[in-house]
Give the backbone structure.
Amino acid sequence: MSGLETTVASTCWECSTACGALVSVRDGKVVKVGPNAAHPHSRGAFCVKGIRALPESTYQDSRLRYPLRRIGARGAGGWARVSWDAALDEMADRLAELRARHGPLALAGAVSGAYFSRGAIVALLLRSLGSPNWMINQDLCGGCRAVSDLITGLAIGGAADLDHTNCALLVGRNPAAADPVQWSALKRAKQRGAAIVVIDPLRTQAADLADLWLRPRPGTDAAIGRYDKDFVARWCHGFDALAARAASFPAERAAELSGVPAADIERAAALYAAGPSTFASGHGIDAFSAGVQTFRAFHCLVAISGNLDRAGGNRRVKRPRGFRTYHDLLHDPAFRLPIEVERQTIGADRFPLWAGPDGWQTACHNPSVIYAMLTGKPYPLRALYASGVNIAVTYPDTRRTVEALRGLDFFAVAAHGMNPTAALADIVLPKTTALEEEEISLAPGTCCVNYTAPAVAPQGEARSDLAIARGLIDRLQARGALAGDFLPWPDQRAFNRYLLGDSAIDLESLRAAGYAEFPYELGNFAAQGFKTPTGKLELWSERLAALGLDPLPDYAPPRREREPAAVRERFPLILQTGLREKTYHHSRFREQAWARKVSPDPLLHIHPETAARHFVGDGDWVTVETSSGQGACRMRAEITDRAPLDVLITGMGWWRPEAAGPEFGALDVNVNAALSYGGPWDPITGSPDSRGLPCRLRRA
Ligand SMILES: Nc1nc2c(c(=O)[nH]1)N[C@H]1C(S)=C(S)[C@@H](COP(=O)(O)OP(=O)(O)OC[C@H]3O[C@@H](n4cnc5c(=O)[nH]c(N)nc54)[C@H](O)[C@@H]3O)O[C@H]1N2
Ligand SMILES: Nc1nc2c(c(=O)[nH]1)N[C@H]1C(S)=C(S)[C@@H](COP(=O)(O)OP(=O)(O)OC[C@H]3O[C@@H](n4cnc5c(=O)[nH]c(N)nc54)[C@H](O)[C@@H]3O)O[C@H]1N2
Ligand code: SF4
Ligand SMILES: [Mo]
């Protein structure tokens, strides 16, 4: 006999779009996940990852349901099921022992960032042990735009008011695959008659929709963004200096550098200047070695064009008074280590706006962490706890990452299933999914707080990150191995109540609706100031100047143009990685049959002429190598004139659960096996080049 079906209002957390969701539950099991049309941000937009992949990753046979302990050699694939007590006791013993032997700094964490609770929780766990060392993957994601946003003083996050704009400027953003909410809003804007300007080397679906599509040579966008000229501003610092620099970038020069016709640049500028205009950006101009300066060029454009915090422009991030974000927790003095300890965060000396006490999320510079694991410099790094990242696939230079993980004295992973990272661990912990755990966060892009409901009890013995961290902290305390307790909440509910603080949002109505909107004011510049040294929007960045970095946005030639001619001859093509696939979230869901049916193989998009020159036919297996990588990646050719001539475009995140472990194909079909993490890095965030890489193509 089957019980009654109930519907729970929730928020999907499979990606940072954070769509409002309705979860149907019968007999204690989720039977359906779908959109919540009432949600003010997503307004009924949703995607197949929420509908299919989320419930399947909760219920699939390969779901991790119990803690596992390695038996036999690391990576050999032998596992024994153990109790939580046994797993956490062993973890606490090993962490306490390594802390005593090498000092607290030898312990590190790895998460994706402070966008989800697990990020902040792992950081605070490490701080409780006395270590400021935690890795985020934002150097590969949105880190450059976040730091540019911060130092310019805009604080716009990802919010683009497409619903009221007259002109949407989309730069390096592929919303049709990456963000169904933005994609629906863009189509609505187009219908309303707003102008759509797309800057992208690939002819994306957004480019098909656009009134004007600019196709720059990869990595040259800063030249276009720098072309602005004659706006005036009241709240800006450094306008004259910026105007002087911009004068050296007439449209003709921008055209020469970017390969975009000068007339198109002029037209884009005119459309944007008419206003109100909104800037929507993405990964396409982030995560490369000129990422911050490229974003600075566009962010200064937002600053001087009067589109900041105005309807149809880019709204500043608003928040309910008294509410705390995960990011706030990281910077709250109550949860900080002594400054002399935080200054030792790996990478803080070289990238202080990224790593350490003054860094955006206070995290490490990852390539320097990998180096420390391998060499003991600047000091030994011997233990790692990774939650919610699959670094053996998603970090560049897979061989080196794997070598570093193999050499650790202790490695623990919390995950939903076995993958190339967890396969190298000593202890693997089963984590709750977005259907099993309560989470509260500020919605991206809309003035609302989101609620993720624990719609059902966890499968098996899965636990939340907070429960795992709490269990560890109690045990470490008993072993005298704590520097402090920076996670003073007994459970997730107490933690969430703390986030709500004394804001006007109460948990009960939040739970009932799945979200809570809050009032806000646009253009309140006097009341809500700019968090920069001058208290103004900084076209001229005082923080960059103080570090001896270029205080004005500038154009840096892309990677391949900085390589010697001999290298360019051997690697004559350009590689772009990271194109999103609708079926997958990075390395996730590769074990799900429906997804593999839709997207069975890693694809390499190749222009017909480039393919012909390399005797590559549609569907052929090919290998790609880059000039700085240590290996090759195998993919299938997809011949398409959407790709520019001699630019190869692929996704990321490939591995095959059915291939031999512990790599499960991560050294074969994973593009990061062909990339380097060794620099050149963005001088501000330390981000590597994930696109614009000199490469060569061969038939496999
Ligand atoms: N289905 C799905 N959705 C996802 C994800 C996923 O894995 N799967 N991941 C999520 C995450 S974490 C992220 S960060 C986002 C990323 O989503 P987006 O920010 O949209 O990034 P990409 O999909 O990488 O697309 C970036 C676009 O930039 C273009 N581009 C590449 N190089 C350049 C350049 O030099 N200049 C310009 N102007 N454009 C360039 C590419 O051709 C591409 O069209 O997607 C999120 N959404
Ligand atoms: N070459 C190249 N590399 C890239 C990129 C690129 O474009 N090119 N893109 C970069 C970008 S934008 C990003 S965001 C990163 C993504 O890098 P990752 O964050 O490593 O990617 P995911 O595959 O999403 O890995 C998440 C892992 O966490 C597990 N997981 C999922 N949900 C939860 C949860 O709630 N709790 C816990 N504990 N675990 C969970 C999943 O099972 C999965 O194994 O990759 C980056 N790497
Ligand atoms: S876009 Fe898809 S995966 Fe991302 S939050 Fe929305 S439904 Fe979930
Ligand atoms: Mo990302």
